[in-house]
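Shipment paperwork, digital attachment
Item: protein structure file
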Amino acid sequence: MTKTFKAALASWLVTVAPAYTQDAPRLVLQLTVDALRGDLPTRYVGNLGEGGLKYLLENGLHYVDAHHCHANTETVVGHATLATGATPAVHGMVGNIWFDRTLDRVVYNVEDQTAPLLGEGAGVNDEIEIDPTQAAAGTDGRSPRALLVTTFSDELSASTAGAAKVFGVSIKDRGAITMAGQSGKAFWFSKSANRFVTSSYYYDAYPDWVLAWNDATPSASFEGASWELMHPKETYLFAERDDQPWETDVAGFGNTFPHRYSSSQNAFDPLENPYFTTFLTLSPAGDDLTAQFAKRLIEAEALGQDAVTDYLAISFSSVDYVNHVFGPSSLEAEDTIYRLDQTLSNLFSFIDERIGLEHVLIVLSADHGTTDAPGYLDSVGIQTGLVAPDSWDPTEQIARLKERFGITGQLLAGYNHPYLNIAPEVLEQSDIDLPALEAAIAEELLSFPDVAFAIPSTAIEANLLPDTEIMRLIRNNYHPARSGNIYVVFKPGWFIADFDGLSVTSTHGSPWRGDTHVPILFAGRDIAQQQIARRVCTTAIASTLSALVGTARPNGASGEVLQEVLE
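Attachment content:
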């Protein structure tokens, strides 16, 4: 045994603290900022306060070249990867939706008809949904049962014989559910009910403190109010871009400041303002409500008050919603970062008073990055565009393929990002040459000017892909029971902006750098400030938390342990 190895082993043994010792953190606080592209925490650093993002940047480890190492950079895919340390090929969350061949329909990632939501009127809001993937759900029931492997929080529960308290909170159901894992409790915001909800998977009835919090209607503080700029307008990088023609006006929320949350003083009357709660989620108000609920949870559940490490995951969704509607390079997006910074500062102060930040391990990352609006990129001289599959007019190509393969009925079941699916009745034909059919469809797709790659699933299964980075990301996204027949990659900066009639300004979901690049920040527990430029994958977070706290790794985890965090 070499001296170097002995020293490393000794350092590891001293550093790693089992989750039940006095040296273990009392609370692991895992923060996920939806769509926080890797450059955004420092893009506006001059206007940040002292206690939020800047606290993490000045007191923690910052991995500046961290990436999701899978191709489909959507919300549930990234959250599940952060939680499990596994790729989608292993944890199974290959997209926000996928085509379930056993049910012969598209399913939503965390839907579960055996776990109905608690309470009446707590279902998916049917008024307007900036994230239309929820419309695919066949039920309002929700659970983590579709997650195929354990999370860090699951292993923390197992290592403490269930003594660790584990919770996930978010505006989005999938943001809370995936992080809480199979053993924790999850709460998310229902726009239709204007309250935080959960399902029967977690509780038979709501805890009293949740009922009391919801009954107090914290969103009432926004009634009759407006989203105003936090700082003087002239101090903003995007001060002169308050009204960009490519921004989306959702139901009268407007393209310029101020953005009114309600058109009258009676915000809760659906006849007066049916979009009040939607407007809250399209602004920093959504993050504020999430943090308020998380603070009450910390108090009511007494997190971090004993020697057993507890776990709280908070997923903040406002950056994502604002990016979709206004674009990440907009005055609205910039102000959302400043208000998120303030929200984090208040949260950290709250935790410091009740637990002590010296007893808390904080890790912040994002489920994905985001692509700038084509209009904005064009304004600075970068050429991109929007993908419109309707303009492809595939009738001639489809007819040619059907004749070639002897198919008389429907050939395609539809496109569910990022997969194109072949109709089930075609797949059931015993004489169909599936590899040849998939290859032929992929070849036709490559003739369209917007498509960069079209990868047949049979080619992935046969390990026929070239060993390039993009192909590795696509392979990491493939699960045989859930992936479609053809993985479609649009050209860099190009995306579909229309979803069932709803137009968005920008989106994400590609394997290109803007969507894979996210921050990783660790702070607390004597971690020293350092900036790390080494390329790392987000799968490393769960493995590192397990090593630091002293639990088993999640059973599907493949990420490295970040040694700088342990040291």
